[in-house]
Please model this.
Amino acid sequence: MKFILVLTGIFCFGLVLGQNKQEYVFKFNVKKWNKEFLKQHKPTKDGMVSINLFDVNGKAVLFEVQEKSISEVNVPDIKIFKGKSTDDTKIITLTILPKTMSGAYLEKGIQYFIEAVKGSCNHYKVYTKPEIDKKIEVGQIEDYIK
Model:
């Protein structure tokens, strides 16, 4: 009986460690950052501003980003930022709304995603390998154009 319990424990432990998905949850106040961006953050002459986020291991990463427009007409309350980390190892794209943000960054060919934690205020997660629903087909399934 002890052998079966030990074997079951090892199996469960192996399942937890064997998963490749990495994730880290951090706190970030978007409203506060937006206020600082509008009032106190004075962009440099090239329009770069700093934003401090985290990687999947919980290490703080400072990004230098620049606001980019998504259309010829300015869209109020939507800020799109693109930039890179100060150590030049990551490139990032962020979408910041009045109350939330989302984005992704690329490091050594691996894409990491940033999104709000559902049901939690000011908590965001950075993760890799999102869950994909295998039942959903993407792209053009039946292309009739010849």
In short: The chain has one domain: 22-127.
